[in-house]
Specification:
This protein is 76% helix and 7% strand. With 179 residues, the protein is mainly alpha-helical. It has a two-stranded antiparallel sheet with strand order 1-2.
Length: 179
Amino acid sequence: MNDVTVKNNAGGGLRAGFQIFPYILFLAGIAGIAVFVRSGSLPLERGICAAAAWILLFVLSDLSAKSAENRRILENDKKERRASVERIQAAVKRINEKALALNSSYGGEKQVLADMSASAKALLPSVDLEASKMEYEILTALTRLDFLCDKAIAGTDRGGDFPKELENLSVKMRARERL
């Protein structure tokens, strides 16, 4: 509402990053103190103290607002990290459920998937940037593995891509689990 907005050439808005109202209030307070000092109603020493207190009040309120914003951002980051791990866990669970339909020649792969399920459940959200990158790669590989699992169930995985992708994914999961 009080945001200053600068229009770019494309017609969209670019937020300037500050609000006008607090600055108007700040300047009005300083101007009011100056008027009282100038008129003699307020001694100069007390006017200086009042101006210093007014400045301190605005600095502290700005710090408090930034601190609240940082807490909100950190909370959103925590939620996103949790959601990423939960997406991995859900995808692994879904593939494990599909794997029940695989024939007996995929016994080793079923065991690897069961182990991967345990690894996925043990995953903890991490603030490490490398962990986020790995989670993205794991989710991409899980999507591919889901498709290859369907091919293996249908008997059309003649190239053996399902076991290969499963092994690659298993290595990625173990690496992510260590972070």
